[in-house]
C-alpha cells in the first residue's frame, strides 16, 4: 500500500517497480537482518543489483511530482499552463495567478518567497529535481526558482498587482483567495530587497498606499 501511495500519480512506474521491491528485496533484507552481513555466492553481481536498485529509486524520486518544498508546487501547476522554457511578459498574469492561488495563508505564502530568496543556498537540492516543460524540453527546480525571481524583479509584475488591487472593493482578512492578503504578503516579502529609489521600491510603496484603504 505504501508503494501504491508513493507512485499513485504514475501507475506504469508503480507496476514496473513494485513487484521487485515487494517480493525480492524483502528476501535480501530478511537474510541480512537474521544472519548479519549477507555473503552471497556471487557478491559482485549482488552489489551491482543493489546499485541498480538505488539508481531506480533515485530516478523515481527525481521525476516524482512531489517536490522537496510543498510551497514550490506552484511551479508544477504553472508549467501545466506555460509550455515554453523562458517566461515572457505575456505569461506574467499566469505567473501571478499561480503564485496567488497556490499560496494561500500568510505563513505558507511567505515561505515560498523565503525559498526563492535563498535559492543559492539550496541550489544542490533544487537542481536535483527535474521539471518537464514539454515532450523534449525539461529544466530543474533551481532554474525555475531563478525564472520566478526574474519575474518578481520585473516592475511589470508589480504593475499587474497594482492594477488588480485597484479593481478590488472588498477585503475579507484571512479568508482563502483574498488578493489583498496576498498583495500585502508579497510586498512585505520584497520591499526591503529592492534598492532605495528604484522603480521596484516605488511600486512597492505605491502598493502599500493602496493597501491602506482596506484597513
Largest beta-sheet details: 2 strands, antiparallel
Q: What letter string, H or E per element, gives the SSE order?
A: HHHHHHHEEHHHH
Number of strands: 2
Strand order of the largest sheet: 1-2
Class derived from helix and strand content: mainly alpha
> How many distinct folded domains?
2
User: Span between N and C termini?
Assistant: 50 Å
- What shape does the CA trace take? elongated
Q: Flag low-confidence runs.
A: none
Q: If you average the pLDDT, what whole number results?
A: 81
Q: Hey, roughly how much beta strand do the residues contain?
A: under 5%
Number of helical elements: 11
Q: Helical residue percent?
A: 55-70%
C-alpha Rg (nearest Å): 23 Å
Task: Name its key features.
2 domains, mainly alpha, elongated, two-stranded antiparallel ribbon, 215 residues, 11 helices
Blueprint (SSEs and pairs):
Elements (H helix, E strand, L loop, with lengths): L1 H5 L4 H25 L7 H20 L10 H9 L10 H11 L3 H12 L5 H6 L1 E3 L5 E3 H12 L2 H12 L12 H12 L8 H14 L3
Antiparallel strand pairs: 1-2
Q: Summarize this, please?
A:
The chain has helices at 2-6, 11-35, 43-62, 73-81, 92-102, 106-117, 123-128, 141-152, 155-166, 179-190, 199-212, and strands spanning 130-132, 138-140. The chain is mainly α. The chain has two domains: 2-62, no CATH class; 70-212, no CATH class.
